Amino acid sequence: MSSEFKLNCAGKILDLSKPRVMGILNITPDSFYEGSRCSDDWLNVAEQMIKDGVDILDIGGESTRPGAAGAPTQEQELERVLPVIEGLASRFNVIISIDTSSPLVIREAVKAGAGIINDVRALHREGALEAAADTNVPVNLMHSLINQPEPGFVPVYGDVVEEVSQYLMDCVERCENAGIVRERLILDPGFGGGMFGKTPVYDLEMLKGFRRFHELGLPVFAGMSRKSFIGSTLGRDTDDRLPGSLAAAMLAAQAGAHIIRVHDVRETVDVIRFLQAVDEA
Ligand code: YH5
Q: What is the pLDDT of residue 71?
């Protein structure tokens, strides 16, 4: 389970010899889940996550949920996230991740103190690759369809782990050609429906085969918290998916996931601490 990866996140070292927890801080007016909709309350939510043992705070200003209010402009997104990044960077020593696909937001967020670029479109938006290359921070590359599919679109894969891995390898090559060295990259298979492009069965197959993503030779990331495959597998609404999310986090950690992105930091940190204790026994 241990690995040698260490990331330099704007001067803060993220040691990936044990699984790390990324807490979700949505700064959007329309987040699907009340518990993470914290536009007014972000400071308190962040402070609690830090007390609970979070390693990274992920700041997002664009909702990728199907049916979410129209995409914000780059300027609107910046207006939402920049005060939060500045506020957190001035108060806490935590690593800040910026969840964005926008080149303007990438540049300004890193200037303001963000230490990780988290892009669900893997730097495919016009100008994003160059913007990331001009910074020095790690980039999380996620597999997705890049655009929101038409309603009713059904994704089809043969071996989903293989096909997602192939895509991620192509993204790595594209980054290297743009001057983003491998040592800065993290790979994420992108669990979930809509633009993430998976059905619940593919999500389960990716979790079952998660170890295979290590063949890519880079740190691996898992974002499953409260997603619909957990709901549909268990028959639970969004506010009732904590046990399923913890089971998923534990399986991913056991399969060697380096970073796990969650809403429920305290509970997930306990799961990982417990797993570590067993590992070290
Ligand atoms: C991710 O996997 N996901 S935003 C739908 C849900 C619950 C949660 C219907 N950003 C990821 O969290 N970044 C998001 O229930 C991400 N990996 C990375 N790197 C979607 C989300 C969610 C969507």
A: 86
Answer yes or no: is the C-beta of 64 below 6 A from any ligand 1 atom: yes
Tell me the CATH number of domain 6-280, given options 3.20.20.20, 3.90.1150.10, 3.40.630.10, 3.50.50.100.
Answer: 3.20.20.20
For residues 186 and 210, give the distance between their C-alpha atoms in angstroms, rounded to a whole number: 15
Q: CB-hemisphere CA count at 13 Å for 101?
A: 18
Q: Tell me the C-alpha distance between 81 and 99, whole Å.
A: 9
Q: Quick one: DSSP state of residue 220?
A: B
Per the confidence metrics, is the pTM higher than 0.70? yes
Which residues are marked as active site? 227, 261
* Chain-centre distance for alpha carbon 6: 17
What's the 3-state SS for 15-77? Answer: ECCCCEEEEEEECCCCCCCHHHECCCCHHHHHHHHHHCCCCEEEEECCCCCCCCCCCCCHHHH
Q: For ligand 1, atom 21, name the residue with the nearest CA.
A: 227
At 37 the pLDDT is 53
DSSP state of 148: P
CB 165 within 8 A of CB 213: yes
pLDDT digits over 42-71, tens only?
Answer: 999 999 999 999 999 999 998 877 777 778
User: Residue 164: enclosing H or E segment and its boundaries?
Assistant: helix 160-177
Ligand 1 contact, 56 CB (< 6 A): no
189 lines ligand 1 (CB under 6 A): no
How far apart (Å, rounded) are the C-alpha atoms in residues 248 and 252? Answer: 6
Domain locations along the chain: 6-280
